[in-house]
Amino acid sequence: MPSDSFRLWYYDLVMIEAFDLSKSFRNVRALDALSFTARDGSVTALLGRNGAGKTTTLRILYTVMRPDSGNARIDGFDTVSEMRLVQQRIGALVDTRGLYPRLTAREHVEYFGRLHGLTGSKLSSMIGELIETLDMDEFADRRARGFSKGQSLKVALARAMIHKPKNLLLDEPTSGLDIAGIRAVRELICKVRDGGGCVLFCSHSMTEVNALADQIVIISHGRTAAAASPDELRSKTGTDDLEEVFLALTGETADG
Amino acid sequence: MQNGIIIVFWKETLDNLRDRRTLLLGLVYPLLGPILLGVMISLATTVLTAKPEKPVRLGIENAEVAPHLVAYLRQHGIEPELLEEGGIKLVRDGQYDTVIIIPTDYADRLVSEVSISLPILIHPARLGSMVGANRVYALLNIYGRQLAQERLIRRGIDPASATPITLKSVNVAGDATIVDVFMFMVPPFFIFTIFMGGVYLVLDTTSGERERGSLEPLLVNPVPRWGLMGGKFLSGVLFTTIGLIVQLIAFKVAFLLAGDAGASLTRNLDFATMLMIAIAALPLMTLAVAIQIIVAVGTKSFKEAQTYLGLLPLVPAIPGMVLVFSPVQVQSWMMALPTFGQTLIFGRLVRGEGMAIPDLLISASVTLLTTACLLAIAARLYENESLIFGK
Fold this sequence. Notes:
heterodimer, A: alpha/beta, four-stranded antiparallel sheet, 42% helix, 25% strand, globular, B: four-stranded mixed sheet, 18 helices, 4 strands
């Protein structure tokens, strides 16, 4: 085991760490000894084909699933044995982002804020801040029934960030958003990164990855096929197009 | 560390107060029992305690051979219609309460003092007709006795010696009436409400939460899952309690509206009794909600859970329904059976037989213990990934 001082130094740099994660559902091996790290003050993108294990990885990281073997740490805290400490440090836009149709947008954010132990004026000022940042004024006090996809996503993002988490775990953060919505989310991600936070997201959109990612982790068949900066990946595969990079890397490992 | 119970409780309560379906089931369903019983009591009493002035519709076939008998009936306020034939059909169709068919050899037999068999047609399914028929039946019995007495006197025999035993009914039920039977029907309605009151809330907050995809985000919050479940559980108990209170008040109102007929019920169901019923019901409500949570978490979909939970109240209500027709001698061990014990306690309270505190304690403690075990199971289910993700 690393010494405490090493731990402190190490986790000063590495906020999210997955080590040898394996997970099976019935006979399907979703993750097969997957490892990667995501650094402080950077945006890391998880890339992979459908069913490659991106969502499962995120679910383990945001503590709703336990790995069969291996472990994951956030800010040095284990996602299973120190689940509560992890939950306090992350904001997650999860795979299923259903809302309560009879609660208003504001009440959604308030509910999660209270579950994070926020109360009173601190809570309401945080809510106000998020409503402004995400441009939710227009529907903040409307009930969620009938919200557009974009509006729902903003509510889901707001409730995930009410406690100002240093680490963001986002599953498809811009899917279904219009251009203004995409821009708002991108700005939010950059804001967290520039504030020294750690953002991990998975996406199918190459433009998204191109625009945001400082580091790319490509997952294929439950394993890490590559982990590097976009430029490194481009030079490694000898192509300028990230899409080509992606196909080359996932294609290669698909055979092996 | 906070467990989130209170936060989840408030959220679910507010959320479901805005849900028309939950409100409908929680507030309108409990009214069905009181309305049903109220109507039944009113109907039953108007039919059964038919006023004497209500004329008996009596038909007589071959009346011409028994003028004395007809005169006797007229004398006692019954105006018979004289029929040719077809009495059976007329009684069946309900046109007459009863018809007596006088044998054609009636007069001869009467003179020669041979016993006469006198058919009196009745239709037991027509409660209203039975009241009239019973009057005719009783009058004819007396008429027969009078004839016998006359014969005995003519022979110089004291009629009293020919009737060595005279039966005399003594009513020990106090002012109890047929209506009191309905008291036995009240407890099953309570049981029904207890097991139905929280169903939609529990469905909405467990199966519903999973199906609309709001469960996964909820689980990421830094509170234990048993805390989330605990809040939902308490909200379910609150809604069930509201349902039962609504039902108690509705019963009171229904009995009041039933007027004199419901008087004994109204008297028994005073505020103290209603309070006792609510107290006795509380442990059972926790049990019911715990079962609902287990079913809702353990089933794959909202619809599947809904099917099971719709049937659920029937099971605990059965013992109570049986008790309507065959009351048992209450024994203490019965109190240890959740739902059965409460059914007995409710029955006693409703009938105004008071409350044995030890029985209440036995019933409450066993039921609460069962609830605790079920909640532990439910909390374990909440930790189960495959149930959360339905895989």
